[in-house]
Amino acid sequence: MYFNKNLLWVKVLSWRCALGCCCMHTNMAEPMELLCWGGDWDLPSVHSDSLIVLAYAKFSGAKLAVKSIDWTWRTITASVPQLHYEGSTVTEPAQILNFLRKQAEMKLYIQLYLLSATKSKMTPTCQKKIKTRITELEKGSPPCRFNADYELTAKQGADTMAYIALLEEKLRPALLHTFWVDAENYVNLTRPWFTSHSPFPLNFFVPGRQASLALSRILLTKAESPLLNITEVEGKIYSEAKECLNLLSHRLGNFHFFFGDTPTSLDAFVFGHIAPLIKAPLPSGQLQKHLNQLDNLCQFCNTILKNYFTDASAEKRMDCSLTAPHDPVDANLQKLTQLVNKESNLIEKMDDNLRSSPQHRHETKPSARASERNSPLLSKH
Amino acid sequence: MSLAAEAFVSQIAAAEPWPENATLYQPLKEDQILLSDSASSLAVQTFLRMCGLPVLVSCRANAEYMSPSGKVPFIQVGNQVVSELGPIVQFTKAKGHSLSDGLDDVQRAEMKAYMELVNNMLLTAELYIQWCDDYTATEISRPRYSSPYSWPLNHILAYQKQWEVRRKMNVIGWSGKSLEQVYEDVSQCCQALSQRLGTQPYFFNKQPTELDALVFGHLFTILTTQLTNDELAEKVKSYTNLLSFCHRIEHTYFKEQDRESQSGSSRHSKGSLP
Question: What is the residue range of the signal peptide feature (chain B) (predicted)?
Fold first, then answer.
């Protein structure tokens, strides 16, 4: 019974994987579509949240069809950024990142399972664990977790969450103030830009609405409630933002990215927040001046722009990304062997736990016998 | 307070030593105080105990209105009044008592980041559960918040506070979340804290810092406060190293208070850890 089930499962998976690969490669079926604000000032988008998602998509090699909402009615109706895939919609950068990660993880697990089934390097309990994980991912049950970047340790995942909270609390109010509340910047830069990128009757409403949202956010979260006066809060939010930038600079040090040599979701978040501040031609930017003094953060931003957002480097990277159209087996196999070593440690641990729990003890015996019959049969397929 | 006023106050603060009659003001413990205020107040008390500074706890019905920033708790030291943990930490630093001097820049950055994580997730989740969940708001928060006042003031104040909190939740994007999502966020936050703590006694190895005080304040209050259901406490209990962390701090810094509070524990607070 067990080997029949396994066989069927492998067939279904390989069919699904092939179809998935086909979709990814030829883009004939629905690719993932991202709605975001358009780009300017050397950036792919002027909106912080959209930049976060775009950066993470580049880091993880996910293929996104980017659709800008400029000059459409979506400037006032849509909450940007927004990801559309197979009828479902995801908003908020954190949720979108989680979704992309889940897709990548699912693909990885399916390929792992297929490899393990054909090459029979893993024990049946490992395979069972992979299978449960795939069904879990399909059902969408694992919730938003930042520490699911599989290259990060648990502590680094926790640090990611903490630094993102720091960014949101300390830096974002000052960014909102710089772009939307500071009179000089708003009148000379932000409002003209957004007005020129919105369709006819909306250009009167869009900037004003964003500005009032920004102001209310700053006042409600930072101002002391009996007073609610913006001038008193300004000093406080700018000093907190400068402190936050200093802290980020200390943490980054001389490294290229926050956790070693490969970029992760924290790098995407930091990039999304500081890139507009570095690149926008702000008339009055005390925070910008402060940021320009922090060389390593400017360097960080420029490195990401150069390596991930110019066309020449994008083609070079496609050859070694997971979703490469040509040479799927070799490139995948290389990356997978690296990850299998990491994963198998995890899976071995889970395996031990599983073996020690009483309810699974008699389940392992019949499947062990079944897998011995499995491999010669499967290798024919 | 503006920056110039803050600098002035800290200069004055540096001049005098810590007096014996420093007082901490919070809402009434038995009837009025809510989960989030209780957590913040406990965090400040823990911090001051860790610094070895004596402080008297005084419960007043109008503590929130006496506070310079509208938030409780606040401390009165000599001629100065300082509210909220952040400014209090700076104030005690100006007086020469600090827990985080031994940390280098990177560690200090981490500590601040984790404190923001607790404020961003745990405190906001507590506020959400108290005021945006209709059942809890009707059964617990509104009656407790307005208990010292007579009709019609109690209704007006309770609804005003609820409206304020809901506006804030709207602006930061939490109003669209369901209760399950909020519990899940709390769980993630606890997981991050648990992973950071690991097997160490405190977050930054041997010495407690303000981060330990803050985390203890929130977790202890969540574990010992009775809400409409126990789900929040269950989420925290599933992380054993956080539980032992709370026990450890409770035994180290709150031994005497523990003995006193066990004799007179209220309906709302369960007194000591299970």
Answer: none
Q: Are B26 and B37 in contact (CB under 8 A)?
A: yes
Answer yes or no: do B189 and A225 touch at CB < 8 A: no
Spatial strand order of the sheet with A82-85 comes to A64-68, A32-36, A82-85, A88-91
Listed residue (A114, A209, A221, A122) closest to A171, CA to CA: A221
Tens-binned pLDDT, residue by residue, of chain A (381 aa): 444 455 555 555 554 544 444 334 333 346 788 888 888 888 888 888 888 988 888 888 778 888 888 887 777 777 788 888 888 888 888 888 888 887 777 777 787 777 777 765 566 777 777 777 777 666 654 444 444 456 677 788 888 889 999 998 899 999 999 999 888 999 998 888 888 888 888 888 888 888 988 888 888 887 766 556 777 788 888 988 998 999 999 888 888 888 888 888 899 999 999 999 988 888 888 889 999 999 999 999 998 888 888 754 444 444 444 443 333 444 445 555 565 555 555 555 555 555 555 554 444 444 444 444 444 444 443
Length of chain B: 274
**Mind telling me how many Å the CA of B108 is from chain A's nearest CA?**
8
Q: Characterize A258-275 residue by residue with b for buried, 16 or more Cβ atoms within 10 angstroms of its Cβ, and e for exposed.
A: bbeeebbbbbbbbbbbbb
A87 to chain B, any CB pair closer than 8 A? The answer is no
Contact B182, B125 (CB under 8 A): yes
Please report residues of A whose CB lies closer than 8 A to that of B70: 224-226
Number of H-type helices and E-type strands within chain B: 14, 4
Beta strand B23-26 with B56-59 is parallel
| Residues 6 or more apart in contact with residue A163 via CB below 8 angstroms | A248, A251, A258, A266, A269, A270, B113
Dist CA A239 CA A173 (whole Å): 11
Interface of A with B in 140-169 (CB under 8 A): 143-147, 154-155, 157-159, 161-163, 165-166, 168-169
What ipTM was predicted for this assembly? 0.85
Contacts of B102 (CB under 8 A, 6+ apart): B207
**Angle at CA of residue B215, ends B212 and B220, nearest 5°:** 115
CA atoms within 13 A on the CB side of A372: 5
Geometric angle at alpha carbon A369, from A364 and A374, rounded to 5°: 110
Distance (Å, rounded) from C-alpha A74 to C-alpha A72?
5
- Chain A contact for B105 (CB, 8 A cutoff): yes
